[in-house]
Amino acid sequence: MSGIGLYNETSLHNAIKEIYAKGMYPTEVECDGYVIDVIVENELIEIQTRSYSSIKTKLATLLKNHKIRLVYPLIVEKHIRVLDKMGKKILHERRSPKRGRRLDVLNELIYIPHLLSHKNFTLDVLSVNVLETRCDDGKGSWRRKGVRIAGRELTNIIKTETFTDLESFRSLLPLNLSNEFSSRSLKEDHGVSPRIVNKMLYVLDRSGAIQKIRKDGNLHIYTTINS
Fold first, then answer.
1. Residue-range domain boundaries for the chain
2. What is the pTM of this model?
3. Which residue of 42, 43, 87, 224 has the smallest Cβ count within 10 Å?
4. Where do the DUF8091 domain residues begin and end (predicted)?
C-alpha cells in the first residue's frame, strides 16, 4: 500500500458498497434522476459517509415510490497512519482515543427526522473499524498542523443494527425510562450527554416516536407513543 493515490475519501464508501452488492447486484444505477449506490432486488441501498443534510431531498423524493435502506457507518475504532508529504513513507501510527458511540447517529438523523416513520425507510447502522491515512504535506487544517486526511479504509465490521420503524428508533432512549421524562431527567438520571440529549429529543419528537404532553416551567415533558 504505497502511494497517496491509493487513499481517497471514497474508499470506505466503496468497500461498504461492495459488501451490499455481494458481487451480484448492480451499483451506481440511475433511478428517478438520482444515482443509487446499490439496488438489491426492489430495494435501493444508499451508503452515506458524509452529512445527511446533502441527501434529505433525494431520500424524500425516492421514498415516495421506492424502498430505501440508508447505511450509516459508525466508526467505533480508528487506527491512524501518517505518511510523509510524498505519501510513500510511514512516519508513525497510532490508535485514536476517540470512539464512536451508538447515539452518534443522532448527529445525522437531525436532518431527516420526518423520514424515519416512512413505511419505505430502513436504516442500517454499521459499527466499523477503519484505518485513516493522513499525509503530512501541509495541506491539512490548522487543527492538525497541516496534516491532511487522505482517506479511510474499512478494516472490519463489528456489527449491524437495523432500524425499521418508530419502535426500533425508540430503542435509542435509555433503558428503564419512566413513562414521563424530560431533557433534565435524561441527563441527570440516565447519563445522556448534554451534547446529545437535545438532538435525541428533537429527532424522536419530530419523527413521532415520542410526544410532548405538557410543560413544567420551561421544561418540556415527553412520553413515548405506543405502536
1. 4-164, 169-224
2. 0.88
3. 42
4. 10-163
